[in-house]
Amino acid sequence: MNLEKLMNFPKWFGDWNKNNPTDIYGPVIVMGGLGGAVLVVIALFSFGQPFATDSLQTGPRGIGMSVPEFKSDLAKPDPTIAELDAIGNLDGDLIAAMQAWTGIPNLFEDPDSYQYAVGSMMISMTQNINENWAGHVNANGEVGVTCYTCHRGQPVPSEIWFSLMPVTERTAGWSANQNRATSLSQSTSLPSDALESYLLDSQTIGVHDLESRAAGIPGQDGHPGIQNAERTFSLMNYFANSLDVNCVFCHNSRAFYDAGQVTPQWATASLGILMVQELNNDYIVPAGGLLPENRLGPRNGDEPKVACATCHKGYQQPLQGTNVIGDWPQLQSTEEVVDLP
Ligand code: HEC
Ligand code: HEC
Ligand code: HEC
Fold first, then answer.
1. Gyration radius of the chain's alpha carbons
2. Which residues of the chain have a pLDDT value below 70?
3. Whose CA is nearest to atom 24 of ligand 2?
4. Is the minimum distance from the CB of 190 to ligand 3 under 6 angstroms?
5. CA distances from 115 to 33, 122, 295, 332 (A)
6. Distance, CA 91 to ligand 1 centroid (Å)?
7. Of 137, 242, 284, best ligand 3 pocket probe by most atoms within 8 Å of the beta carbon
8. How many angstroms is it from 283 CA to the middle of ligand 1?
């Protein structure tokens, strides 16, 4: 079609236009690009940057000790907080609350049931956590722990763990601990026995010595060897995943080995290690005999055990630091006696 006729331009323009052919596509693409960019800028100003990051400072300024996080993730609330609000404080009726928190409607109705026995043990365990491990569970303010922190409305909490040893049967010794991606090795080839070595037993968490001619034999008498280093990294990956943080949340990355160059969160985590060892050894394992077989581990028939993620569930603070204990003085101290039906 003839542009000249269509637009009814004067003849001189048609002639001039024919003699001066111009590629209009280049400029159109440039103009379109510029226009688009202007629209994107306007959208960013009006609706905010979707990939904005915020950073949590974990050490002195200027040395890179901060944890960047997408703001959209930070604003994303933990959906279980809304469920907790929906349960409400049930007018201070602790028995009703414990039934709602564990999702066991007839909990404490039958004194002969194993759930009754395990439940009573769990009350003492929860009181002990709040009374004696306040340095961890109230590290930044009153937060505390109730049955809901672990259970979230389920009879058996999520993020419990069982021993998976040995992970390979064709090999013996050290090789039987590793080189198979499992939930306990954080899907790496690192050893799968880190939780049982460090959060049930209390073996030395540490990398092999930095000195080339250190006294002592690596792997013996508390001198960490290569195997301890591998296990340590397996545990540290577990920590990072349990809290959804990275290593510099707790460490200064130039000196992972130096406990003198760490963040306040490292100290909270150290207490957490001791707390979890106590929960497993003083409560969970001794009560394991009460459990029916269908609750026990698939590999070694052991009881479901606690670790960091059992409370944290992938959040830096369980329930994003909601104060869960304030309304429940009965669970705050081992001196309290909870009257069971
Ligand atoms: C630190 C985490 C944690 C807290 C806090 C906790 N529990 Fe548990 N609970 C567990 C684990 C792990 C199991 C599975 C192992 C077991 O049964 O011993 C469990 C199992 C149970 C069971 C057995 C359920 C079944 O059907 O096998 C009952 C009942 C129970 N808890 C009640 C409670 C009550 C009541 C509270 C609060 C007073 C509570 N728990 C607080 C971790 C916790
Ligand atoms: C939630 C806090 C936390 C996070 C996250 C964390 N660590 Fe650790 N890490 C600790 C604590 C606490 C210790 C000391 C444990 C002890 O000695 O009892 C430690 C010990 C170590 C050690 C042993 C140091 C020594 O004495 O030889 C290494 C290495 C290490 N961490 C590396 C890492 C790496 C790599 C990451 C990231 C994948 C990481 N950590 C993430 C808290 C953390
Ligand atoms: C019994 C439940 C429970 C277990 C198990 C647990 N934590 Fe915590 N942790 C908490 C609570 C509750 C807080 C929040 C304290 C606060 O903010 O006042 C917390 C806070 C922390 C913090 C501080 C976070 C911050 O923002 O300052 C770190 C680090 C931490 N836990 C690491 C660990 C590690 C590592 C483990 C496993 C070795 C662990 N926790 C096991 C309940 C638990």
1. 30
2. 1-7, 74-75
3. 257
4. no
5. 66, 10, 12, 22
6. 23
7. 137
8. 10
Q: CA torsion sign, 92 to 96 to 97 to 100?
A: negative
User: Which residues, at least 6 apart from 1, have a Cβ–Cβ distance to it below 8 Å?
Assistant: none
| Cβ within 8 Å of residue 159, ≥6 positions away | 242, 307, 309, 310, 313
Ligand 2 midpoint to CA 116 (Å) = 38
Residues 230-261: tens digit of each pLDDT: 999 999 999 999 999 999 999 998 889 888 99
Query: Which one of the ligands is nearest to 338 CA?
Result: 1
CB atoms within 10 A of CB 156: 12
By most ligand atoms within 8 Å of CB, the mutation choice from 69, 195, 203, 205 for ligand 2 is 205
pLDDT at 147: 98
pLDDT at 66: 79
Which residue in the block uniquely carries the two structure tokens 């469920």?
83
Report how far ligand 2's centroid is from the alpha carbon of 144 (Å): 24
Overall size of the chain counted in residues: 341
Number of the ligand closest to the Cα of 289:
1
Q: Answer for the pair 203, 195: CB distance below 8 angstroms, yes or no.
A: no
Half-sphere exposure of 36 toward its Cβ, with a 13 Å CA cutoff? 6
Cα–Cα nearest to 334, from 146, 137, 130, 145: 130
Instruction: Determine the distance separating the centroid of ligand 3 and the alpha carbon of 316, expressed in angstroms.
Output: 7
C-alpha 162, offset from chain centre: 18
Whether the link from the prior residue into 304 is cis, omega within 30° of 0, is no
Nearest-atom number in ligand 2 for the CA of 207 is 27
Residue among 229, 220, 225, 237 at smallest CA distance from 257: 229
Q: What is the pLDDT of residue 323?
A: 95
